[in-house]
């Protein structure tokens, strides 16, 4: 019986420690193994059809992982569209969906979703989820601030406030 209790205590401690790591959604993270990634841009406001390199080679890039069916992604777009004009020259924005085009979803559907939410920066499809893998995304929405060399400087799982994003942008631009 003592052995069973000891094993339960060890398992509980492991789960608690793992949960603490997962809950640190703003933790800095540096890994450039997965970048740069080439994805397929969509013809939409602020975006062009064709290959898109993530991150941009000339400045930090905010990578926004989203899906058209994701309700929190709608709210995240409101925050991003409010901040974009303020940081547009210093921080590149790139929104990427891993949804597969075909069947019930066309690029035009994504472009319509994008236009209705006032997106005005590059939006792309990545059906292989290469970008999500490169930033370590574990859900949607997921944001990562990646420097020009491909190192993730900041990441956030879930809905991020404008204040939190502004703080992350300023830290990366100052650093």
TrEMBL record:
InterPro entries in the record, alphabetically?
Redoxin, Thioredoxin-like_sf, Thioredoxin_CS, Thioredoxin_domain, Thioredoxin_ResA/DsbE_sf
Q: Which UniProt keywords apply?
A: Cytochrome c-type biogenesis
Q: Where is the Thioredoxin domain?
A: 18-174
Under the heading Pfam families, the entry gives: Redoxin (PF08534)
Kindly list the places in or outside the cell where this protein is found, as annotated in its UniProt entry: Cell envelope
PROSITE patterns on file: THIOREDOXIN_1, THIOREDOXIN_2
Principal subcellular localization? other
One GO BP annotation is: cytochrome complex assembly
Q: Which GO terms describe its molecular function?
A: oxidoreductase activity
Protein's recorded name: TlpA family protein disulfide reductase
Q: Which species is this record about?
A: Halosimplex rubrum
